[in-house]
Amino acid sequence: MTGTLVLAGTPIGDVADAPPRLAAELAGADVVAAEDTRRLRRLTQALGVTTKGRVVSYFEGNESARTPELVEELLGGARVLLVTDAGMPSVSDPGYRLVAAAVERDVRVTAVPGPSAVLTALALSGLPVDRFCFEGFLPRKAGERLSRLREVAAERRTLVYFEAPHRLDDTLAAMAEVFGAGRRAAVCRELTKTYEEVRRGPLEELARWAAEGVRGEITVVVEGAPDTGPEEVGPEELVRRVRDREEAGERRKEAIAAVAAEAGLAKRVVFDAVVAAKRAGE
Question: pTM, whole model, 2 decimals?
């Protein structure tokens, strides 16, 4: 018989939030794959647990190479526990490759549900939570970041992002530029920890606040786009938007499709506007 892969949620701050089953799984697993073995050691000490199984590192740098090894353990009948530094594995953390490989080999995959920065931030944000999108981390380069934000500029669902503290002010400023300075948002910092803080307000205001310097683990929740009906955009504006996307690195075909989607227009309308502008400039 094949073994079982267990994805276990770990505390995002307060160790008292650890689910009761986590301690049992840590004690009973044949193999514990941890994003950071040192942090795992601190967690087991806090929980008063001794791991009897083999402990291996499993992080972004060795994920591809170690996945086949762990799959072989699973095929041999082992119970493999996967934990990351905080929250649920595979959610902007290592885990997806191992889950996909295990599923492909018909290995049972289960989970020990635990704390989630995404859901905690949503609940605390004060923004609509009935429908939301998790976007993970934005690209580090400014042009790529703007391009990614433009892709969801018309998204009506609440948006959730992770961000590094030293990039927060640039990210919020870019969001204010793309989404609008007045779009509501919440910056959730150090959730469940001693210095937990939730700062709510318009994006422009939050960007000014973040420019003074922010520390800690950051989750940003942004209000979805308002329902204003079909957008009326003239040919010149369509052409400008396509050019902005091209300058950010998108191919023209992709830029035209994205601009058409944003404006609620057929791709042919945007294409014709681009062609007409090119001919006028010849």
Answer: 0.77
Cα distance between residue 188 and residue 234, in whole Å: 38
Radius of gyration of the chain (CA): 23
SS3 58: coil
- Contact between 3 and 107 under an 8 Å Cβ cutoff? The reply is yes
CB 150, CB 143: distance < 8 Å: no
CA separation for the pair 41, 114 (Å, rounded):
18
CA distance 268 to 122: 38
- Residue 40, C-beta contacts closer than 8 angstroms, at least 6 positions apart: 32, 34, 51, 55, 83
Burial of 163 (0-12, 13-18, 19+ CB in 10 A): buried
Torsion angle, alpha carbons of 248, 254, 255, 256, to 10: 170
Percent of the chain with pLDDT over 70: 98
DSSP one-letter code for 196: -
Kindly state the tokens that stand for 61.
Answer: 């740098």
Strands 197-202 and 218-222, sheet pairing: unpaired
Say which DSSP state 192 is in. T
The answer to whether 247 and 143 have CB atoms below 8 angstroms apart is: yes
Mean pLDDT for the stretch of residues 130-145: 95
The conformation of residue 10, written as its DSSP 8-state character, comes to: B
Please report which helix (H) or strand (E) contains residue 198, including its range: strand 197-202
- Nearest-angstrom CA–CA distance, 188 and 198: 4
- Bridging pattern class, strands 132-137 and 158-163: parallel
**pLDDT classification of 171: cutoffs 50, 70, 90:** very high
pLDDT digits (tens, 9 = 90+) for 87-105: 999 888 889 999 999 999 9
